[in-house]
Predict the structure.
Amino acid sequence: MSRISYVNGQYIPHSNASVHIEDRGYQFADGVYEVFAVHDGNLVGEQGHLDRLKHSLVSLQIDWPMAKRSFMVVVKEVVRRNHVKFGLVYIQITRGVARRDHPFPTNTQSAIVVTARKMPPLDKNVLNKGVKVITIPDIRWKRKDIKSISLLPNCLGKQQAREAGAFEAWQYDGEGNITEGTSSNAWIVTKDGELVTKQIGSTILNGITRLAVLESAREAGFSVSERAFSIEEAHNAKEAFITSSTSHVKAVTRIDDKIISNGHVGELTSKLLDLYVDYIEEIGGPIVTDRWN
Ligand code: PDD
């Protein structure tokens, strides 16, 4: 079965899908994106992703390419046409096609691409294995709250991680505090049992998985802090994990050369993964993101 993608108003065989060479996304990375997980044919955290997409578009003054209601119809249609029961949908919206010139063009229609692909269903045994992360300087721009398609530092960081035999790279700022992974949010559990992840603002992407985990952790009565934490604190953590739409809740058992929780998945991490699985099985109802700064 061949894949079908949506490009600027048309459903097209994926192998033939293309955009114009003067699309500003291609020339300037002038665009934004979203990645939704698909679980059992449903979109996870739909409202949260939509809110964040709106935030990214408004921040960059890019117009919605179509009415919001039609937009969700298209996204779900791409999932349906590709028979994706478990997997992800990728949405990219750019400022559109214009003669190459740095200032925003006038009268340009924003451009949209939607693709979907299958992935293995979330598997607790795989997520519970634990992965290694390395720490690297955060060299990204100052608006990390925008889900911009300009991802070169993230790609360089992830490549560095791969070359070091690690799954992810945790980026640290000028004060030596961890911001987030190159494509995931970073979490630790301190020796005192405090669950910590960086507070939102312009220094991290407010992950939709992050919001779901925060909500379930608070509901379960765990001690939760949204605050900065240092590399040293991470090295000395009792537990660590990452969250994202594609990694879900994935245990971290090594940070640089420090073994975390004796190389095993931590107790709290495991509980949070269970709660996340419950959440997406119930299908990931609306997460209210009214906390954009
Ligand atoms: N990345 N931080 C960064 C820098 C990310 O790129 C992502 C997601 C996250 C987690 O966000 P969420 O929980 O909403 O997926 C945090 C996606 C998966 C990607 O770029 O493929």
